[in-house]
């Protein structure tokens, strides 16, 4: 029942985030909160238009636009949109400045973590049950590594697993980032869909990667790990591993319903080099399990001979079984750490593998971050130099495969990588380089 003029006067004292919030109350408030007079004042106080006079009010000065054209000739909400677009552009410029410099070893931006903080970026998961109801999970623990970030969600209020149909992973950014304070989950935000996972028949359709006394882990590509309580078969936690390569783009440039489409590499065909696309690769490899890092190394000058192309894959040998001088030890006891509000644990023989394969020009060529597990192998016929159990770790997606062989050295209580081979899809190579293998 309050007159619109009085409401407009009250709204004029609010900041931008508060005006956007009151606009969500009802249709009447929405139309009032679109008032150009309110938003022009907010816009001019922040960005200060070039044409401006100063109107003196007692001891206070405030900017006032020349004439009434800026208000009269604009549709309601015009200056609100201008303010929002300008704020987004300012943040984008700040982020682009941070990611401009690339790491020579990985080809990735050096200041990814700083850029994410500057943008106010965070991540949420939305669980949808079979009745269409959505459950938003906000609380997270973040663990940053050289080339990836691992995100852990845990709660005491997970919905029943049997009722769930999908899990959606979103990047979330405040509509108006404020560098002076942490973003509020109650303020206006934008969602960008990163991935969608189907949870129906989770224990049958996903890969079981390990267990401890309390939980059992199941993996879904790309990078999702779901921990279930053993006794109740209910969700204990959800963990996602995200590689830095184009993480900012996928977390900010998609919509709430459509994933961001990664741009294709523009191939430049080299007619001079008959083995163009087969050599001068570099691999940056991280193996970690939460707070612990088991291996972090860079391997250069990887190549594939034409004779090694088979079954639609290029073979890149990183560590060879025949050359024991390059065999690599893992530091520490391999396991994947997890925690909830009450419990915490470590699932042995599981870890997160981060692969960053860089082409000869320094561009990231194939990148992923995924939970993997070690499996006991019965094949020990070719390992005459070592006494111990043999384990294997395999990973595969649409672009390639990674095969790792490790031996457990009982005397030193450590794992030793004795074989590490990457298989890259010829389709991926041909699309990237414009070749035909």
UniProtKB/TrEMBL annotation:
Location of the F-box domain: 1-42
Highest taxon of the lineage: Eukaryota
A Pfam family reported for this protein in Swiss-Prot or TrEMBL: F-box-like
CDD domains xref list: F-box_FBXO15
Cellular component GO terms, alphabetical: SCF ubiquitin ligase complex
Protein name: FBX15 protein
């Amino acid at each position: 029942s309050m007159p619109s003029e009085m409401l407009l006067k009250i709204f004029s004292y609010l900041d931008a985030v508060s005006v956007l919030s009151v606009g969500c109350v009802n249709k009447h408030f929405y139309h009032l909160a679109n008032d150009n007079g309110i938003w022009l004042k907010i816009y001019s106080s922040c960005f200060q238009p070039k044409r401006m006079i100063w109107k003196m009010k007692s001891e206070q000065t405030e900017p006032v636009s020349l004439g009434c054209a800026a208000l009269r000739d604009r549709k309601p909400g015009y200056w609100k949109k201008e303010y929002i677009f300008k704020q987004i552009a300012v943040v984008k410029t700040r982020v682009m400045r941070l990611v401009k410099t690339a790491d020579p070893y990985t080809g990735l931006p050096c200041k990814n973590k700083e850029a994410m903080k500057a943008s106010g970026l965070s991540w949420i998961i939305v669980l949808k049950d079979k009745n269409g109801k959505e459950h938003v999970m906000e609380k997270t623990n973040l663990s940053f590594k050289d080339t990836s970030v691992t995100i852990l969600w845990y709660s005491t209020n997970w919905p029943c697993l049997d009722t769930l149909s999908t899990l959606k992973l979103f990047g979330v950014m405040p509509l108006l980032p404020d560098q002076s304070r942490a973003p509020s989950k109650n303020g206006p935000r934008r969602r960008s869909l990163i991935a969608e996972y189907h949870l129906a028949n989770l224990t049958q359709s996903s890969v079981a990667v390990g267990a401890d006394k309390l939980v059992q882990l199941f993996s879904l590509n790309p990078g999702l790990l779901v921990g279930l309580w053993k006794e109740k078969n209910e969700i204990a936690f959800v963990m996602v591993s995200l590689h830095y390569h184009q993480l900012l783009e996928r977390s900010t440039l998609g919509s709430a319903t459509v994933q961001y489409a990664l741009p294709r590499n523009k191939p430049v065909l080299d007619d001079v080099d008959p083995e163009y696309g087969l050599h001068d690769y570099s691999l940056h490899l991280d193996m970690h399990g939460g707070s612990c890092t088991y291996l972090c190394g860079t391997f250069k000058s990887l190549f594939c001979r034409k004779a090694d192309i088979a079954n639609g894959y290029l073979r890149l040998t990183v560590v060879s079984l025949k050359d024991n001088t390059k065999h690599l030890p893992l530091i520490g006891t391999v396991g994947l750490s997890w925690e909830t509000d009450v419990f915490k644990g470590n699932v042995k023989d599981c870890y997160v593998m981060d692969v960053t394969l860089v082409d000869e020009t320094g561009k990231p060529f194939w990148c992923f971050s995924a939970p993997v597990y070690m499996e006991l192998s019965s094949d020990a016929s070719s390992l005459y130099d070592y006494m111990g159990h043999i384990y294997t770790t395999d990973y595969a997606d649409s672009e390639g495969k990674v095969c790792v062989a490790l031996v457990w050295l009982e005397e030193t209580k450590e794992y030793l990588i004795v074989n590490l081979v990457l298989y890259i899809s010829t389709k991926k190579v041909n699309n990237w380089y414009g070749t035909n293998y």
